[in-house]
Specification:
about 425 residues; alpha/beta; UDP-N-acetylmuramoyl-L-alanine:D-glutamate ligase; Protein-Tyrosine Phosphatase, Chain A; eleven-stranded mixed beta sheet; six-stranded mixed beta sheet; globular
């Protein structure tokens, strides 16, 4: 890479004043973006967030379009109205196609890397190389935020020019620190109302008051909050704004979204082995009873992850309901068989049932649940349609759960403990 390619030129004179925060990785991108945007808003800034779940200007949805020209038009309009901070969820597909060469990023965040989208990239190395593009094009002196417990972050660190500033974060569940972390969790506590993160001693931890409180539920969100806090600090935010932003950030649609209590029913976007294992681990910490998991796998993308996904399900849940996801042009029975085999290989006595009709699978899981159980509907998250062949069939896990809870249709499978599903006493506001 020549020095002339760093930093990347602004897309136009109107873009010169914009500071763009880019977030990439396999899991946690959407939540990290939401948390970072909340910190910026707590500092009184005008913020545009562009991500998987849509585009939001200070929490209000705006149309984002699909092309790069439409993206630029959105940002030009926001800039003309005084917006100066942009948070963008950057995908490996976009980065592979030169996104980081077309748009100037001023700060980059790497959450983690695990197998996914290998049909798109061909090899694991290509997938990692695509993610690395965000950091290779940062300008001298610009900050990058990396996961100190992820070996792929170390690769990105070594490949990135040394004049880019590094900040490192770490959560214990990811593994031991491979490099010293600027911000790490010493302990993580969670319940049905949120997550508390006790911080290990460091200058940044001390500035933040030694702990962080989140409305989101789960260790993965604690890790995302550490990443967002590092990014916010690198962008020059006051510690008080960071703490307030993290504490007030609402849950992200479809990311361990709590939709009912007694039993707890959550919808989560987990669709990789690592994400599924972490989602089940969070459910386990909340459950006084069983963890019941509904999940499937998409067709036309990374068949090699299906066995490990089945294993994660069998090891993480007490009851596994295998169902349809987005089969595209693959046979749903064949996909389910691979998931079942992975589950059986990991745990021969696993309680597994296959219900390919996703609506019926969700109904079945909630109907068997007792008050102390946690039911996880995984894989589709915020999505509102299934891709079956060439057709997009309307379907929403969230809507299905809310339909069941609204009619109190679920009851426990044991007969001695009838337990209508109750909606939670809190709602999830829009981003």
């Amino acid at each position: 890479m020549t020095s002339a390619s760093r930093p990347v030129a602004a897309a136009g004179p109107w873009a010169e004043a914009l500071f763009t925060h880019g977030v990439t990785g396999t899991n946690g991108k959407t939540s990290t973006c939401a948390l970072l945007a909340a910190c910026l808003r707590a500092d009184g800034r005008d913020v545009l967030l562009v991500g998987t779940t849509g585009a939001f200007r200070n929490g209000v949805p705006v149309a984002k379009g699909k092309s790069f020209a439409e993206f630029c038009a959105l940002l030009e309009s926001a800039a003309a109205e005084g917006c100066r901070d942009v948070v963008i969820e950057t995908t490996s597909f976009g980065l592979r196609n030169g996104y980081a060469k077309k748009w100037r990023f001023d700060l980059g965040v790497f959450t983690n890397l695990s197998p996914d989208h290998l049909q798109t990239h061909g090899t694991w190395e290509n997938y990692l190389a695509a993610k690395a593009q965000l950091f290779l094009h940062l300008g001298p002196g610009r900050p990058m935020v990396l996961n100190a417990a992820d070996p792929h972050a170390v690769f990105i660190h070594r490949a990135t020019p040394p004049d880019v500033r590094r900040l490192w974060f770490r959560a214990p569940s990811r593994g031991p620190a491979l490099v010293p972390a600027d911000l790490e969790a010493a302990a993580i506590e969670l319940d049905g109302d949120g997550t508390r993160v006790a911080l290990a001693p460091s200058p940044l931890a001390e500035a933040l008051g030694g702990s962080l409180q989140l409305r989101m539920i789960g260790e993965i969100f604690a890790e995302n909050a550490l990443a967002a806090a590092c990014a916010a600090a690198a962008a020059g935010l006051e510690p008080g704004a960071i703490v307030r932003g993290l504490a007030t950030c609402p849950g992200v649609p479809g990311r361990f979204e709590l939709l009912a209590r007694e039993p707890m029913v959550v919808v989560d976007y987990a669709h990789s082995p690592d994400a599924l294992a972490r989602t089940c681990a969070t459910a386990r910490r909340l459950a006084a009873g069983r963890v019941i998991l509904v999940f499937g796998a998409g067709g036309g993308s990374t068949p090699s992850k299906r066995g490990p996904m089945g294993a994660a399900a069998a090891l993480g849940a007490d009851v596994v309901v295998v169902t349809n996801d987005n089969p595209r042009h693959e046979d749903p029975h064949a996909i389910a068989a691979m998931l079942e085999q992975g589950a059986r290989d990991a745990r021969a006595d696993a309680a597994i049932v296959t219900v390919l009709d996703r609506r019926a699978a969700i109904e079945h899981a909630i109907a068997m649940a007792h008050r102390a159980d946690v039911v996880v509907i995984a894989g589709m998250g915020h999505e509102v349609g299934q891709r079956i062949g060439d057709a997009d069939v309307p379907f929403s896990d969230r809507d299905e759960v809310l339909r069941i809870t609204a009619t109190s249709a679920a009851s426990s499978g044991g007969g001695d403990d009838p337990s209508p599903v109750h909606a939670p006493d809190c709602t999830t506001p829009a981003l």
